Amino acid sequence: MKIIVIVKEVPDTYGERKLDLETGLADRAASEPVLDEIGERALEVALSHADANEAEVVVMSMAPERAAATIRKGLAMGAASAVQVADPGLAGADLGLTARTLAAAIRKTGFDLVITGNLSTDGSGGVLPAMLAELLDVPNLTALSSVEIAADSVSGGRDSDDGTMRLSAKLPAVISITEALPDARFPNFKGIMAAKKKPFETLAAADLGIDPQDLSVAASIMTAIAEKPPRSAGVKITDEGDGGVKIAEFLVENRLA
Amino acid sequence: MTDYPADPILVLLEATPTGELAKSAAGLLGAASLIGTPVALAVTAAGRSQAIAEQAAAAGAERVLVVETEAVVARLSVPIADALAAAAAVVAPDAVLISNSMEGRDVAGRFAARTSAALAVDAVGLSRDAEGVIAHHSVYGGAYNVDSAATFGPLVVTVREGAVEARAEARPVAIETLEPQPSGKAAASIESFESVTATSTRPELKGATKVVSGGRGLGSAESFALVEQLADTLGAAIGASRAAVDAGYIPQSHQVGQTGVSVSPHLYVALGISGAIQHRAGMQTAKTIVAVNKDPDAPIFEVADFGVVGDVFTVVPQLISALAERKK
Ligand SMILES: Cc1cc2nc3c(=O)[nH]c(=O)nc-3n(C[C@H](O)[C@H](O)[C@H](O)COP(=O)(O)OP(=O)(O)OC[C@H]3O[C@@H](n4cnc5c(N)ncnc54)[C@H](O)[C@@H]3O)c2cc1C
């Protein structure tokens, strides 16, 4: 079985994240780039399946050239190979172009199962898994908080405010997982050394028959961007036995209670 | 019927498991009414569309297109995407508005990919200028406001639940039945659905005007009841940090933050929450923030309008009785 895990380099959420006010793109120099945590959990789902079964795990990402080091972490964790679609023409790609490019790369690589995170921490779109499923003409099982992978099928549970849904599909399929699934393993020294020798394929848009400049396809574009002034701290008091009463007074004064 | 309004905005309605119109619909129809004429689509199991269509008209749908199919309870996403594609083909909308829910995101993704339409996600508002529909987004935890638009063609937009306050005026009920051709696209099977019995009379977290949240500082699932008591005193919804969710104090659907729900209430009360940047990302656009934490250096105080350095187990019970006292 061949499992492709889609991962993404994102600005570390522990730092201050900035957008470039000229281009509207993420200011990659402003914060530490990391592998998105949810993508690492997706990789963990694939690797723990591969630990006990016959499976080849490929990490794939569409990201600028310099993200290679971040993607390599997926190899150090245990993926067998990596595919990076890196093309200056794809900078600022909207969701449609991203989905078409990744779908072409997935098709070229070949797959039985594609695993992604449910939501990235930077875009928070959560639509990419369904877009990939549509373009690949396979089922989507999205936002799973439990996953069972079998030889020719995949199933899982999806929790929402309304209840729990059980989903299943024959492979090939695209699934996305939530952070209810376990934390990812850490790459160990052996893994980091082995990663250096693993296949790492870099593809350009043209290798996939994608023209990023194709204006005949509708795209979503950013038309304005503004930074909001940061919030400032207000009053801070230390409880001297009347902290609760003080809050009650504050709420009443501000017509909040 | 071909007499569609000149500026139609197609709104995908969602139904609850019990067949009621989902709460998100009023905001979607309200948003649509700001930028055009709301035309709604309901995709339901047999015999379920009439009630939903009536509720949608009351919430401002000029016309309700209905598709009744058993496939909607048997197969994920694809039957709704098929119905939406059929509705868009007849209505030729300027924009398609879909709830940014699990189901909504999947349908929006499939529909936009299938029709090669521009897609804008997690919008908190919509407007229109001479060139067309504009989606407004609040990104990086509310640090930036960003607008987006389509280069051409309809803009498909997922709208953050509870973010739009506008409401549309009620309309007379006008129903039209569609019978779309199934696309034959592969879909996952829905094996079962176990609904949680909604016994709670508390406000829903998404779109709540007041939120009381608890963190790891509450220490146990039993002590988390303190958060619930204050929430009930204030008529607030209940939120939590990821640490509180991970510790099993409360289900994940209450998580506020980066990877949870984003809220913008009038009042946000953080109890025993350190205020990690990922938590703040989901609540720092609240109008007023109150925090109780025993660590004077907790980062939550950097964004709090009123902070008390103290123990939640003494401060909060006193707060509850002070508020109860006033109500008498
Ligand atoms: C990719 C990613 C996404 C994340 N997404 C989210 C998210 O969506 N939401 C989220 O919340 N977190 C998220 N986190 C986790 C986040 O980094 C923090 O770990 C989490 O918010 C901490 O929760 P907490 O404040 O409850 O716990 P802690 O940081 O442990 O803080 C507990 C606080 O309680 C105080 N306290 C203890 N006892 C008492 C008492 N008796 N009285 C008063 N105060 C007391 C302590 O002083 C402390 O400040 C994410 C992390 C990552 C990496």
Automatic annotation (TrEMBL), chain A:
GO cellular component: cytosol
Swiss-Prot/TrEMBL cofactor(s): FAD
InterPro entries: ETF_a/b_N, ETF_b, ETF_beta_N, Rossmann-like_a/b/a_fold
Keywords, ordered alphabetically: Electron transport, Transport
SMART domains registered for this protein in UniProt: ETF
Sample GO molecular function, one term: electron transfer activity
Residue ranges of coiled coil: none
Pfam families registered for this protein in UniProt: ETF
Domain Electron transfer flavoprotein alpha/beta-subunit N-terminal: 23-212
Keyword Metal-binding: no
CDD domains: ETF_beta
Family: Belongs to the ETF beta-subunit/FixA family.
Function: The electron transfer flavoprotein serves as a specific electron acceptor for other dehydrogenases. It transfers the electrons to the main respiratory chain via ETF-ubiquinone oxidoreductase (ETF dehydrogenase).
Binding partners and assembly: Heterodimer of an alpha and a beta subunit.
Protein name as catalogued: Electron transfer flavoprotein subunit beta
Upper classification of the organism: Bacteria, Bacillati, Actinomycetota, Actinomycetes, Micrococcales
TrEMBL record, chain B:
SMART domains for the chain: ETF
InterPro entries reported in the protein's UniProt record: DHS-like_NAD/FAD-binding_dom, ETF_a/b_N, ETF_a/FixB, ETF_asu_C, ETF_asu_C_CS, Rossmann-like_a/b/a_fold
The keyword GTP-binding is annotated on this UniProt entry: no
Domain Electron transfer flavoprotein alpha/beta-subunit N-terminal: 9-194
Keywords, ordered alphabetically: Electron transport, FAD, Flavoprotein, Transport
Cofactors, names only: FAD
SUPFAM superfamilies associated with the record: Adenine nucleotide alpha hydrolases-like, DHS-like NAD/FAD-binding domain
Positions of FAD binding: 216, 241-242, 255-259, 272-279, 293
GO molecular function terms attached to this record: electron transfer activity; flavin adenine dinucleotide binding
UniProt record, GO biological process: fatty acid beta-oxidation using acyl-CoA dehydrogenase
Cofactor: record remark: Binds 1 FAD per dimer.
Binding partners and assembly: Heterodimer of an alpha and a beta subunit.
Function (record text): The electron transfer flavoprotein serves as a specific electron acceptor for other dehydrogenases. It transfers the electrons to the main respiratory chain via ETF-ubiquinone oxidoreductase (ETF dehydrogenase).
Protein name, UniProt field: Electron transfer flavoprotein subunit alpha
